[in-house]
Automatic annotation (TrEMBL):
Protein name (record): MFS transporter
Domain Major facilitator superfamily (MFS) profile: 10-384
Subcellular location: Cell membrane
Database matches in Pfam families: MFS_1 (PF07690)
Natural source organism: Streptomyces gossypii
PROSITE patterns xrefs: MFS, SUGAR_TRANSPORT_1
Length: 410
């Protein structure tokens, strides 16, 4: 993570395109509020719709990994983003709960298509030693765009929550156009060769990957409580739900401001188990702050704390998963691990809305704090037990000067 190696051009362009997409990516966080306020449905109905969206993202992620090998990565990314835009516009125009459910499920089915090809492109285009740096840079770019997205959410949300979905649709289309115009074209020979290369890959039988999937799912449940139920929790506390956008902006600013610190030798060389333990402890401290918060200032302070933990966690887990994959298998391994977000997308809104209804926001955040403490103990132990994988493509990374060629062949 030191030395400032320049990432391949295709990776840098992909990061910029994803940052453009992130500008409008907070609409899903307000889906439950849209249902309860615009259609006067109960919290259980809102949680059920969000769960249906989460269920639909599971096949979406797996299909995205397979399509990336079949039709090419650029085509898959463009198709996924275009589908997201159409579904978002449908949500904005929906005039009944039935239509909201239809478009929410449709959105889930296309929502994760672009993630596996994006992550695999990064993993294949840079040396294994640079994976954490590349994924952290992607997160920093998304966080920088997230600052504008949070302000956009706070502004448009005060006007009409439907405009959040319109803004998200427009940024999806802009990102799709950017990817189509600036990323290298898919080569048919590469797309046809990929299935043969991954025939022997069986990620569902890899015990280490499945253990990572288990802890990753718990982390995703915690994280989605922030993304999905935070506006609803603030509404229960008598605060404006749209002010969650200010908290998202604060989180993004913390992550961006913390990026230079990650280049310090002490942090750059921090062993993965120590980084995971520290990150989860900070996450627990921040969510514990949410449990005690009763005003916007307290929420802002707690957001800074958990975001510092997120800074240590982001990038490391994807680097571990990419390191587990055999040659030609990164896309499928990352897709399987990514189903953790789909599973959490079902569990998080159901558990979150029920906890708020029966235990209040303090009960919700207290439960998430305990879950973070559990991960602080489990994740480091798991990482220590993962043996090094002797894969040729990881032991002998391509020279820096050839990495642009490898990225272009994607």
């Amino acid at each position: 993570m030191q030395g400032g190696k320049r990432l391949p051009r295709a990776v840098r362009l992909l990061i910029v395109a994803r940052a453009v997409n992130r500008l409008g990516a907070f609409s899903i966080s307000f889906l439950t509020v849209l249902i309860t306020t615009n259609f006067e449905a109960g919290a259980a109905v809102a949680g059920g719709v969000s769960a249906a969206f989460g269920l639909a993202t599971i096949p979406s992620r797996l299909v995205g990994g397979r399509l990336a090998d079949r039709i090419g990565r650029r085509r898959t990314i463009v198709a996924g983003l275009t589908g997201c835009a159409l579904a978002q516009l449908g949500l904005a125009a929906a005039d009944s709960v039935t239509l909201v459910i239809f478009f929410a499920v449709l959105l889930g089915l296309v929502f994760e298509l672009y993630e596996p090809p994006s992550q695999a492109m990064i993993a294949d285009a840079v040396a294994p030693s640079e994976h954490v740096h590349a994924y952290s840079l992607l997160n920093a770019a998304l966080a920088a765009a997230g600052m504008g997205a949070g302000l956009m959410a706070a502004g448009l949300g005060r006007w009409d929550l439907r405009w959040l979905f319109v803004a998200d649709a427009l940024t999806c289309l802009l990102c799709a156009l950017t990817v189509y115009l600036v990323l290298p074209a898919d080569h048919l020979r590469a797309a046809k060769a990929a299935p043969d290369q991954t025939t022997a890959v069986t990620p569902w039988r890899d015990r280490a990957l499945l253990l990572m999937l288990g802890t990753g799912t718990l982390f995703a449940v915690i994280y989605l409580q922030i993304m999905i139920t935070l506006p609803l929790a603030m509404d229960h506390e008598g605060l404006r739900p749209a002010d969650a956008g200010l908290l998202f902006t604060t989180s993004a600013l913390t992550i961006c401001a913390g990026q230079p610190l990650m280049r310090w030798r002490r942090l750059a060389t921090l062993p993965a188990p120590a980084a995971f333990a520290t990150g989860y402890l900070l996450l627990a401290l921040g969510l514990g702050g949410y449990a005690l918060a009763d005003n916007l200032a307290a929420y802002l302070a707690a957001t800074v704390v958990w975001s510092a933990g997120d800074l240590l966690l982001v990038g490391r887990v994807y680097a571990v998963v990419a390191g587990l994959a055999p040659p030609g298998g990164k896309g499928r391994y990352l897709a399987v691990y990514g189903t953790s977000w789909g599973i959490a997308g079902i569990a998080a809104p159901l558990t979150g809305t029920q906890l708020i209804e029966h235990a209040g926001p303090a009960g919700l955040w207290s439960a998430m704090t305990l879950a973070c403490l559990l991960l602080a103990a489990l994740q480091p132990a798991l990482v220590r037990r993962i043996p090094p994988r002797d894969h040729d493509d990881q032991l002998q990374p391509a020279p820096v000067e050839s990495q642009d060629i490898r990225a272009a062949d994607l």
